[in-house]
Predict the 3D structure of the following.
Amino acid sequence: MWVKAGQSLIVGAVIAVVCFIPYLVFQYRRYGRFSASRMVWMTVMLLYLTGIVAYTLFPLPGADWCTVPHERLVLDPTIYVRQMWASWRGGEAITSVLTSWTSIQQVLNVLLFIPLGIIMRHMWKAGIVRITLTGFCLSLLIESTQYTGNWFIAPCPYRLADTNDLVTNTLGAFLGGLLGLLTPRLAADADSLEATRGLAKPVTRGRRYAGMLFDLAAQFLLLISVDVTILVVYAVYVLGTGANSTQVSSTLNHIITPVSDICCSGLVLVFSLTGSGASIGQRLVYLKPQPTRSHPRLWLFLRAMVTQGIGLGLLFSSNTGLATGWILLALIWVLFSPRGLSFQLTGCDLADSRPSSM
């Protein structure tokens, strides 16, 4: 049990890391700012859902499981209560009945769904009826998955589908909703965040780092897309012509680097020469450069080249050490001034792209 919990936490943490940048983009585009409390609750929700999946699907059955008949479905939602009642009436001590595995299992099923109600209340202000129905539907999905052997993917059903779980899970969601009503809200209100989405906000170091992170992610996705496209095209070429694999590998090494260099540099150029001149990351966090000298477009271009342009040039010329040092310098510079290295060197100011009032 504890091993499974640890494994689900690890998987949930990995998913949370993978989803961090997309959810951060979502926050800036929907709320106009970063909300730490909602980010924390979203991480909690991911960890919780991976735990639910782990307890639904694992452990997988052994090779000999399907050869032995097993009970697949319990339709009587009162069977365990009646069993405990019969044990108590039969002379078993009440403490023994309440600490039996049957009783503990029912309590755990309730506790398992209490976080669902709390999360839904704090994140989406869901009412008791909505929370309870969601708990019922999620539990029904779990029991159906177990009854069908992971929707017929597993060689045979290997978990018991139990209507008692449906009742106790739904009760847990209901109780979680009540707890959510009784406890203070710990997540920033989405409606309040959206109400000020269009208003200018201070240029903070956090926003600058978020913009840099988005720029890095955009370059990485473009790089991966270009490399995969080239590899797929060459794979089709090799299969179609029967070309020598060694020769193809050598050709790929000479093509991928320059093409990737051109595409990534082109991304920087396109954004520096259009619109506000802000990078894709800066636009996502509502920032824009403001040149203070004549020929503003020239300075917007130079500003983009100072960090991203030089960094990419050093990286693709195999000077990874210098490239890393240059990027680290740009990152450290923001600690001392939110304007950053590129804005300081080119004499550009940095402002929010939204109006200060509406």
About this structure: The radius of gyration is 28 Å. The chain has three domains: 1-59, 72-197, 205-352.
